[in-house]
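Residues determine shape. Next comes a sample protein:
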Amino acid sequence: MSSPSVLLEIAGVQKRYGGVHALRGVDFSVRAGEVHALVGENGAGKSTLIKIVSGAESPDTGQVSLDGKPLSLGSTSAALDAGIATVYQEPQLFGELTVAENVFIGRELRRFGRVDWPKQRTQVASLLRRLGLDPRLADVRVADVPVAEQQLVSIAKAFAHDARILILDEPSAILTDREIETLFTVVRGLRDSGMGVIYISHRLDELAQVTDRVTVLRDGQVVASQPTRELSVRQVAELMVGQPLSDLAPANPPPPRRARCPHFRCATCRAEKPSLT
């Protein structure tokens, strides 16, 4: 049985901002039908890498390829045209517009030069069903939709534009446990449909529940890329910081505070009682 094909490949990507070397020859790939976690401490290079993949930034050197073909992105719309969509922690939607209007904004379906509203609503209703949402949400203002469902609307927007790579940037950060389970169900469905998902999260305990592979960035470099099942949460954390977690604990931790006895009755506590003079 052949291994899943590589959808997205990043090779030797470097990026500088003045004197800051944000990315140092990063190699990264996403396979069809894979949820690939990208983790690292703040400043490790995650955001810069995602900006490059999503078209918001251009690399100084290196190459981004989709289906083995080099991409020249340069803008988020070019990335979306290529099949790469990003869903951020805070949904990037217009509250005063309906769900259907948001899904197709800037890329409206037209017939005879006019927006084909009925076709848009029908397609959005179908996408919402696919994500386990009430299709009647298509005509609801986004401002009236719960935040968890707004994230799923953003995913529906990616579907509407035939995205093949979906970037989820801290998707669970503002969700309840129940909403996170719904999100995980949707992400697993995306994986099973053959989509490639890049999953960014600071909640390391989530990785085993929803991801297949983990890549760890530190100081702008890839320090590990392994199947999730081969790494514990502790191992991932140690790769992120570059040393055993035990080394980060104070060598001589302060002794625990002793509880005082009531009314300063013992000799020690009487000696510690503040003087009123």
